[in-house]
Amino acid sequence: MKLTTEQQQIIAHRGDMKINAVAGSGKTTTLIQYAKQLPPQARILYLAFNKSVKIEAEQKFAEQGLGNVKVETAHSLAFRYIVRNGGYELQSNGYKAYEIKEMLRINAHQDDNINYILATHVGRFMAYFCNSAARKVRHLNYLDVVTDAKAKVFVQHYYDEILTQTRTFLAKMYRKEIAITHDYYLKQFQLLSPKLPYQYLLFDEGQDASPAMLDVFLKQTQATKVIVGDTHQQIYSWRYAINSLAKVDFEALHLTKSFRFDGEVAHLATQFLDWKKKFSEHESLFIRGAGNHKSLNSKATLARTNLKLLSKAIELVFEKRQVDKLYFEGHINSYTYAEDGASIYDVLNLYNGKYKLIRDKMIASLPDFEALEEYIEKTEDQQLRMLKEIVLKYKNELPSLLKGLKNYHLPTEKKSEADMIFSTVHRCKGMEYDEVSLEDDFITPDKIRKVLEESKDENPDITKLNEEVNLLYVAVTRSRNILHIPAIYKTSESRVHWVKAKKSKPPKFSEFGKKSEANTKRFSLQDYLKRTEQESDNLDENGDLWF
C-alpha cells in the first residue's frame, strides 16, 4: 500500500496527537497502519463511534492480523465496567415523557401539558448531565443548552422544579429503584475514573464525542493517546456532543487528501465551509480531491429534513414514477416516529380529533392540535415538530402514501438493489454513494444572513449555524462520482460539478407499488389516493451524592 506523506508522518509520530481528517481521507486505514508499526505485544484500544462502525473496524483490524487491538464503543466499554456485574436493570430505549411524569409523580399543575413539558425537560437535563464531564448536577446550568425563546422562558420559570426532579430521577437509578439508561451507565463509568489496561488509545470520530468519554480518555496518563476526526463533520451537538479536537492541546496533524471524490467536489465543499466566515473566524480548509470513481451502482437522495425527504420520495415514486425499488437509511419506519415514541399516526389522529386511536400517552393527553404545537415550542422537540409538519402537508393522504412507500421498500439485506436510497444527513454519516442528489432544504447564504439580521439585539446561535453548514458539507462529501446540486447553491465564483439528470424510461407499476407482469397499468398519485382513501379512517398502527 502506497501511503501519502501525511499518512507517513502520522504513522511515524510518537506521543499524543490529534488528526484532523477530511471526509474520505482514509483515517481508518491510517490508524490500522499506525497500529501495525507498534510492538506486537502493545495493548491497543480503538474507540469507535457506534456499533456498526465497531463491527466494521473489528473486521478490518482482524484482517491485518492485529489481535492486540480491542475495538469498543464508549457505551460497550462502560457497559462492561458498570452494568455487566452491577446488578442493574437496563432501560434500553430510555424513558418516554409520560413514563418520567408517572415515575416522578409530576402532576402538580392543573394544566397537564405543563406536567408533560416538565417531564421532557427532566429527561433532557438528565441526558445533558450524564454526557457532560461535570461531577454534580448543580455544576451545570441546563439553560446553556436551551435555545428556542419560548422553551427558554418556560425553563427559566420552572428551573428549580426541573433541577429537583432531575436529581430525584438520577437518585432512583443510583439506588436501583428503576432501570438505568445508556446515558446513566456511561456517566457512572466516567465518575468511576477508571484506569484502562491499554498502552495506546485510538479515539475515532472525535468531533462528535461525549464530554464524559473525553474526560475518561484524557485521564489515561499511562497511555499514548490519538484522537481523530473532522472538525467540519460535527453534527451532533444537539445530543450534547462536543468537538474534542478543539478541546485537546495535542500536536495537530492532518489528512487533507480525499480518495472518495474528485477536485471539483473538494472545491465545492471548501466553498460551502467558507460560509462560516459570515459568522465566525473560520480559516479556509484545503482539501485535495483524488477520487476517480466511475461506477454508478448506488444512487442516493439526501435531505436536511424528514419532511423534504418524504416529499421527494413521494414525488419520485407516485408523481414522476422513476423509482421501482427504494431504501431509506435506517428503514422508513424510523422516519415516522419521534425519539420519545410518538408515531406520525398519533399526530394525525390528534389532528383529526380521533382521540381513541391515539396510542402514545402524552399525545393522547393533549386536548387539541394547538396544545401539541405549544408542547413542541416549549420543549424544542425537533422530531415531533417534523412529524407535525408532515401531517400538516399531507393530512389524510398520509397513511396511503406511507403504505405505498413501504410496498416499494427493500429489506436491509437487499439495499444494494435499490433504484434510489433516501436519507437525511444524520442517518448517512459515514456512508458513501456513487451518485448523490441534494435537496434544497440545507443552509444557504440568504438563510445565514436572515438569522444574523433577526438576532441583531441578541447573540446569534453560532453553534447551530456552524452545524447547519457542516450538514451541507457532510452531504456533499458522500458522493463518489456524480453530484446533483440544486440551483440555489450555485454561486458566480464556484466551479461546481453541475450534472443534468439522464433521461430514462420510467418503469411501469402495478396498483400498490408492486411491479407486476400481469398488471402494468400506470396509476397517478391522485389515482392511488382515491383507491386507498378509505384507509385514512383507521390509522391505528400495528445524602449529597453526585446527583
Write the layout of secondary structure elements.
Blueprint: H1 5-12, E1 17-21, H2 27-36, E2 44-48, H3 51-63, E3 69-73, H4 74-82, H5 97-103, H6 112-131, H7 149-157, H8 159-174, H9 182-192, E4 200-203, H10 211-218, E5 224-229, E6 251-255, E7 257-258, H11 263-273, E8 288-289, E9 299-303, H12 306-319, E10 326-328, H13 344-352, H14 361-365, H15 369-379, H16 382-394, H17 398-408, E11 420-424, E12 433-438, H18 445-454, H19 462-476, E13 479-484, H20 525-532
Parallel strand pairs: 1-5, 1-6, 2-3, 2-4, 4-5, 7-8, 9-11, 9-12, 10-11, 12-13
Helix pairs in contact: 1-2, 4-9, 5-6, 6-8, 6-9, 6-15, 9-10, 11-19, 13-16
**Span between termini:** 52 Å
Count of individual helical segments = 20
Strand content: 5-15%
Task: Label the structural class.
Answer: alpha/beta
Let me know the number of strands: 13
Mass-distribution shape? globular
Query: What is the average of the pLDDT values?
Result: 89
| Uncertain ranges | 492-523, 534-544
State the helicity in percent bands: 25-40%
Strand order of the largest sheet: 3-2-4-5-1-6
Rg over alpha carbons: 25 Å
Q: How many strands, what sense, and barrel or not for the largest sheet?
A: 6 strands, parallel
